[in-house]
Structures are given as C-alpha cells and as structure tokens.
Write a structure and sequence with these properties.
GO molecular function, one term: metal ion binding
Shape: globular
Pfam family, one: Fer4_12
Helix content: 25-40%
Strand order of the largest sheet: 3-1-2-4-5-6-7-8-9
Order of helices and strands: HHEEEHEHEHEHEHEHHE
Oligomer: single chain
InterPro entries: Aldolase_TIM, Organic_radical-activating, PFL1_activating, Radical_activat_CS, rSAM, rSAM_sf
Distance between the termini: 20 Å
Number of strands: 9
Strand content: 15-25%
Radius of gyration: 19 Å
Structural class: alpha/beta
Family: Belongs to the organic radical-activating enzymes family.
Cofactor: [4Fe-4S] cluster
Bound molecules: iron/sulfur cluster
Number of helices: 9
Length: 288
Amino acid sequence: MCDRKPVGDIEDISLVRRFFDAVSHSMGNLSRDASHDDLASQAHHELLEFKGYVHSVESLACLEGPGNRFLAFWSGCKARCTYCSNPDTWEITAGKETKVGELVEKVGRMVDFYRPNGGGVTVTGGEPLVQYKFWQRFCMRLNRYFGLHTCIETTGQGTRRAWDTVLPHTDLALVCLKHPKPEGYRFITVKKDLDTIPWWCRYVVIPEWTDKDEDLDALIEICKGSPMCKRLDLLPYHTLGVNKWEEMNLEYPMKDMQPPTKERMQYVAKRLRDGFAGTDIIVTGDDQ
Ligand code: SF4
C-alpha cells in the first residue's frame, strides 16, 4: 500500500544511544504492565501469541501519520497496482510469521520517541485490511500497554467485516485513492465507513493517468463530500520498485512512464487547493 520502499529498521547510529536509553525505561513500563492481573488470563496470552505475516518494520518513520512512528509493512495484497513499489508484499506468506507480542515488544523499546510529538504506530503494506484480525489484536495490546495513536494506510479494499473490525481500534486512516472515478475503483462503500474517523487521502499523481483536470475535479468532489477528510497528500509516481518486478521475473507494465515534473505537481496542488477553498482540507506534496 505504502508508496515508498521499506528502508528497514533503525540504522542511524546517532539514534542508537537514545534508543538504548529508551529501552530500559520503556521495558520498565512493559514489565510494570505485565505484572497486572490481566496478564495471567488466557485471553491476554492468546492476543500476544496471535500471528500474522510482516514484510518489514521501521522503528522511526515520520511521513505516515502525525509525529514519530513505528511503521510496519504487512504482507498480502490483491490490488496488483500497475505501478506497485512493493510487489514483494503481494503474497501473505512472503512476509515473516510474527507474533503480536513480538511487535508490541519492538514498539515498547521505542515508545518514548513516539509519545512526545503525538506519534504512534502505522501499519501499511501490502494491504493491511487483508490481515485485519492481526491489526485488531495488535491495536488492542498497543492500547493496553502504551495508549499510542494508531493509523492504518490502506487502499480501502477490505470487506465490511474487516472495516468493522479495525475502525474501533484506529485513530486515523491514510487512504490511497487509486483513482477518483467510481467505475475505476470501489471507493463509495469505504467512504461511508470512513466518515466515522478522520482520514487523509493519499493520491499518486501519474501523468495522463490520474492528473487530468476531470480526475482532479472528481477527487475534489470525493474529499469535500466526506466531512472527516482532513488532508490530501500528493505522491508523485516513481520508479523505485521497478527492480523488484525484474527480480520477480514480472514484466513492469509502465516501462515508458515518467514521474511528473515539479511544475506538474505544483499545477495539480494548486488546482486542488483552489477546489478545497473554504474547507479545512490541506494539500501537501508539491514541494518534493
Ligand atoms: S498492489 Fe497493493 S501494495 Fe502495491 S501499490 Fe497497490 S495497494 Fe499498494
């Protein structure tokens, strides 16, 4: 789902010292909570033992939601977007089998980096709604231990059961809108569900494919029609994932497509901002 490549777990050596400082404090929080009676219950144990498939994690991300965030790329996605940057997340079992407890522990090691600026945890993919029960259980334990802000980045391609399961545990949704026209994308049902929590629209700008005036006008209509839409992030199409298609012996369908120019991004952003005049929807992404 996420339109950037996973860069892996924390590597910046300057953060390592702070990381270990945070570990002792945060693990103290964890073990304090772990002494609670609830820990002894079978239900609690089962939540921590619940397994899902995880492609990779980043312990310190800052683009996928507010503040500093723990970012998890979950595997599994049937969308098969023609410009997918992460085709290695398509198959669920391509990810590493991981327990909820393992992820909670990773978050616990860094929790002091997330709290001060309203950060938290974001799950992307792949399509996180494929493993919606994993997200639900992960959030339940996150809330139990840390009370962190939770965010899901999705194309919206989930069943009603999936949405009904994840929304009560989710503070913010980043919705990557693949195309604004209904016939191109089953968005309408999801939009109704999303009106119960804030959501940010993620929109990939592909020259001639998604940046025509009529597309942008349709996009404005969708976002303005949802009172909980708070922000629109423009993501310029890029080719960073092409090598993965080659490694997987897949033919990349958009070989001749070029990223949009800076001028085109600025045009798109201006048209959208004009369209959102009088609302509180902000537009980002034309400064990259
Ligand atoms: S195929 Fe799935 S993971 Fe790839 S861009 Fe589309 S929604 Fe995202």
